[in-house]
Amino acid sequence: MPSAGRAVLRLLLAAHAAAALEPVSTSLAFGALSLLTGYLYHKQLHCHFAECCLDERPFNASALKLELEEKLFGQHLASEVILKALTGFKNNKNPKKPLTLSLHGWAGTGKNFVSQIVAQNLHPSGLKSNFDQLQKWIQGNVSACASSVFIFDEMDKMHPGVIDAIKPFLDYYEQVDGVSYRKAIFIFLSNAGGDLITKATLDYWRAGSMREELQLKDLESALSVGVFNNKHSGLWRSGLIDRNLIDYFVPFLPLEHRHVKMCVRAEMRARGAAVDEDVVARVVEEMTFFPKGEKIYSDKGCKTVQSRLDFH
Ligand SMILES: *[C@@H]1O[C@H](CO)[C@@H](O)[C@H](O)[C@H]1NC(C)=O
Ligand SMILES: *[C@@H]1O[C@H](CO)[C@@H](O)[C@H](O)[C@H]1NC(C)=O
């Protein structure tokens, strides 16, 4: 199991093309990945190419759009950027580098959720590979499933500089030791920059502007600079930023009452229950909101919605 304080790497597999790695690059990849995860010791490769590399589904942008609209609340910027980025990337037959997205925002704003939606849209069975399988997979082989999706959780807990070990994979190289990474997707998740995003969103609100009018350009460069200068972001002075290897910094905004309510309703529906507005109101009442005076944004986003709903 992932332990707190450690960067967690989850890997969602799949692809058609599978090329064996040269011994040299295998150890390079192991070095990098095990450094990141801190996990070792799995002898057996669980997932053979035939089983796990064939589930790739043609990318369907409308399906992803629909799913984001139905399930992700209060994140007009993230929805838009992610949809555009993936559509462009998947429609490009010859990408020059892998797609790298860095998702930022407080806990409970949907970063993890979105990355799972993305992965599932590309590899429907990908999420079934659990952590164990992943470790085995990495430890046993680094297969070159060309369009694998890598999700690095809790980047902010990673030691500065560690992530740069994977820089060669993210760069504009045709191949690294015989393997092309250009069709892969890397997603970093981080709470770092959450303060910055919150401040910008709050300023916007205080100025009486519509949240939905907040634009990516209002946030993206501040976010990349902020993360680069933040010792605890996992991307502090990172070559990935320096070299512009991160394609998008995606802000996840703090969630308001109305968004939390949407999460509660969606969760009720997902459980096959009728939406009961009394319960919705009670669940939201129990949650805490900030800043102290205005109490606009949920402290934990939608994170505790499930457990609170269990209780009711
Ligand atoms: C793409 O997704 C949409 C919405 O779910 C669906 O109606 C459509 O049939 C899908 N297209 C393909 C080619 O699967
Ligand atoms: C993959 O891992 C298995 C089991 O650990 C091993 O037998 C096999 O040689 C590995 N293949 C490559 C290409 O490293």
From TrEMBL:
Segments traversing the membrane: none
Residues that hold ATP according to the record: G105, W106, A107, G108, T109, G110, K111, N112
Gene3D superfamilies documented for this protein: P-loop containing nucleotide triphosphate hydrolases
GO cellular-component term (any): endoplasmic reticulum lumen
Signal peptide (from-to): 1-20
Subcellular location: Endoplasmic reticulum lumen
The UniProt record lists the keyword Disulfide bond: no
Family matches, as InterPro entries: P-loop_NTPase, TOR1A_C, Torsin, Torsin_1/2
GO MF: ATP binding; ATP hydrolysis activity; kinesin binding
Main localization of the protein described in the UniProt heading: endoplasmic reticulum
Pfam families linked: TOR1A_C, Torsin
Top-level taxon: Eukaryota
Entry keywords, A to Z: ATP-binding, Endoplasmic reticulum, Glycoprotein, Nucleotide-binding, Signal
Coiled coil (residue ranges): none
Family: Belongs to the ClpA/ClpB family. Torsin subfamily.
Protein name: Torsin
